[in-house]
Amino acid sequence: MNQHVPVMDGDTLAKRNALVLAGAQALGGASPAIVISLGGIVGSQLVANQAFATVPVSLMQLGLATGVIPAAFLMRRLGRRRGYIVGALIGAVGASVAATGVAERLFWLFCLGTFLCGLYGSYVQSYRFAAADTASEGFRPRAISWVMIGGLAAGVIGPQSVYWTRDLTPAAPFAASFLAQGALALIAIGVVLALRAPPVKEAKSGGGRPLPEIMRQPKFIASVIAALVAYGLMSFVMTAAPLAMVGCGHSVGDAALGIQWHVLAMFAPSFFTGRLIARFGKETITAAGLLLTALAAIVGLSGLSVAHFWIALVLLGIGWNFGFIGATALVTDCYRPEERVKVQAANDFLVFGSVAIASFSSGGLLSAGGWTSVNWLVFPPVAVALALVAWQGLQRRVVA
């Protein structure tokens, strides 16, 4: 039986930080939503070979993957708050570069801008770990969920920014949307200034286990694979979805709204995901997320109407929420306090590196095999991740 671990009195600071980070997530999380909504569409207008249309979105994911380790060590040196300010400044610069690429119709410059936006994302993604740093074991899943709730606001702010700004620069459609993205990153600086996180430092040399030893733990392997499957497949399908919708005759507005519903579904369950984990266990909720991802693919294979796309994207979002938050909570069981920096960085590098690969392959597979092929490729990774999570759950029960 999974028992609820009581929240400790010391969680006052953890609750405060979680709320601050949720606000920062609402602003910083809007950045990828804007790139995902527009990256493939703008890319298709700037490049002749449509197989490369989703490269800007993929480069955002690559920027996120390559940025996690430098971001972790920068925050170890400067502290989380100063590190997050640096990240937001990178995001503002990246959005400005992307807007310039759109205005000048330079595909490579637009891609550079989205890559820089991905670097900003590597800081935003660590908000969930920052919330866990000061939390007790019992409050940790809820602290992570609280931060992810900020993404619910991001799911509205990002697509609505696109909707209200897309036509402000008629000579360069969507350029204003990326300028709005940069403005949101600058506003986020004012929010993270309120963060009161402890110093991100590891213990003196010899105070923690070597990283390879930690990474060889079966529970680390299972949690990382579950996270990369949950996030990688979400990125894989989501990147292709807007182009697939437009290709099926649906409007850009329908595609943007589909992404909005998807992002809302990604973060809305965070109101109760932490409590579900406390009630049913980390492995159970992670497995439920993987199953919902498979169900999204089944819906995607069932038809090409707007409703089919939107329902598939909503299920995909909920599946990501359960799978990724559950897997993140599992990762926090794998390290000691003095090991957190290197383990968190290694986890995110593996996860987001896989996400980048999935995103890069999405456009080519959509161009070559269509929306049907994209959905069929969801099932094998889900089966592998489910098997590992189920095995880890059985091992935990045997030990208990």
TrEMBL record:
InterPro entries: MFS (IPR011701), MFS_dom (IPR020846), MFS_trans_sf (IPR036259)
Domain Major facilitator superfamily (MFS) profile: 219-400
Transmembrane annotation, as ranges: 18-41, 53-75, 82-100, 106-123, 143-162, 174-195, 220-247, 259-278, 285-304, 310-335, 347-368, 374-394
Name the UniProt record assigns to this protein: Predicted arabinose efflux permease, MFS family
SUPFAM superfamilies: MFS general substrate transporter
Pfam families given in the database record: MFS_1 (PF07690)
Molecular function per GO: transmembrane transporter activity
Keywords from the named record: Membrane, Transmembrane, Transmembrane helix
